[in-house]
Amino acid sequence: MLYDLIMPIPERLNPTFANSGVPVAVPPERIEEARRRLIVALDAPSAAAALDLVNRIERQCQWFKVGLELFTSAGPAVLEPLIARGHSVFLDLKLHDIPNTVAGAVRSAAALGARMLTLHALGGPAMLAAARAALEGLPDPPELLAVTVLTSMDSEQLQAVGVERSPAEQAQLLVHMGLAAGIRGFVCSPREAGSLRALTGPAGVLVVPGIRPAGGQVNDQKRIATPADAIKAGASYLVVGRPITQAPDPAEAAAAILRQMATAIEPEP
Fold first, then answer.
1. pLDDT tens digit string along 224-245?
2. The whole model's pTM is what?
3. 25-264 maps to CATH 3.20.20.70
4. Which long-range contacts (CB under 8 A, 24 or more apart) does 26-35 make?
5. Which of 65, 94, 222, 232 does the annotation list as catalytic?
6. For this structure, is 222 an active site residue?
């Protein structure tokens, strides 16, 4: 099943919809499915700041992303309280090095309890294959996600680093390469989600950042979409940072995004 890597949700984390700002007209099961597919980016400068944010929004969120800023500041120990509270951790370090080094880093990340882990597809097929092989034999390995084209990059930015293909063409090339190396998970912009879903099929895992609610600030993102549009395009999970974490009321901002996601989630047959 596409979402079988999601950890069971503890009862204390199940949202009480009557008290969460979710309209009763929205089916609770769709809100819950949206909650399982929303990843909030803990792009905080310290463990204390990150955990304060978690305290405010954990009723709306099962998944949290730990990226370079927080991991560099707080170290691997920052994952421990998140996992202890029943949350799933997306460790977004975008590994990119020689195959042996990346393989070792992948094993270390798996030992930390991360449920998803990113590496740059531009590391090449040998690096991707080494990362996949590093997880063989582990009882509950994380999902490896190959990053295609950063959502902050457009055609002009790609050309500046010598890539003449469009972002969509480059993403498709990297997904073909990743699939051949045994990778089934990818990070892509919402604009490429539809075409990449056609390549991966239903078994592929597409994690999509660059999510901005309608009318929200774009910030430094180039290729963006609303939560509902990204779900409709084929996203498995949405990564949302500043629209939630920098909102006056992060919990309500998260609840609003869940409602938008829920409108695009197809009911179970």
1. 789 999 999 999 999 999 999 9
2. 0.87
3. yes
4. 26/259, 26/262, 26/263, 27/262, 27/267, 29/268, 30/262, 30/265, 30/267, 31/258, 31/259, 31/262, 33/262, 33/265, 34/258, 34/259, 34/261, 34/262, 34/265, 35/9, 35/60, 35/61, 35/62, 35/258
5. 94
6. no
